[in-house]
Design goal:
Rna Polymerase Sigma Factor, Chain: A, 2 domains
Length: about 180
């Protein structure tokens, strides 16, 4: 894997952009897919959002200033694309956030790509009950094992606030699983 600074330079150069973009996709496609999938829950929707994310990255690479890691910048784009997608879906269906969450969980239960067992499904149901920001923080910390500093860059929030949100999310999930 080439150094991030080199990759960014190659992405910004017309001569090397195409090859560098292929490298970027190869390096980050799986991590971004699973990040998006944990937000939108559906495989096909995650594929669509991932494609939109890479299109945005490609079109906006010149505006990347290098103030954060490329990875953090792309995760922020993927997160925003995922949240925009969910908002569009809720609007299109004319449902509330809670109604849409219920629909997503029912779809997850029927999703042929979901390989989890009963416990994993219960965890997904518990995560679905969290407020959006807690859900994002929990997924990034629990599944992706990101450091609070990385999550702070992605979500543009303080480390202290993240720790508090993560702690609250864990307590809510524990309560849901125990049936409190």
């Amino acid at each position: 894997m080439i150094a991030e600074e080199t990759l960014v330079q190659e992405l910004k150069s017309k001569e090397t952009q195409s090859k560098a973009f292929e490298q970027l996709v190869a390096n980050y496609k799986e991590r971004l897919y699973w990040h998006i999938r944990r937000i939108v829950l559906n495989h096909d929707d995650a594929d669509d959002v991932l494609q939109n994310t890479f299109i945005k990255v490609y079109r906006n690479i010149d505006s990347f200033k290098g103030e954060s890691k490329l990875f953090s910048w792309m995760y922020r784009i993927a997160t925003n694309e995922s949240l925009s997608f969910l908002k569009q879906q809720r609007t299109k269906l004319g449902v509330t956030d809670d109604e849409y969450q219920d629909k997503m969980i029912k779809n997850l239960e029927a999703d042929v790509y979901f390989e989890g067992d009963e416990i994993q499904l219960k965890l997904q149901k518990a995560i679905a009950t969290l407020p959006e920001k807690q859900k994002l923080i929990f997924n990034m910390k629990y599944y992706e094992d990101l450091k609070y500093e990385e999550i702070s860059e992605i979500l543009d929030t303080t480390v202290g606030g993240l720790k508090a949100s993560y702690h609250l999310a864990v307590k809510k999930i524990e309560g849901f699983i125990k049936g409190d």
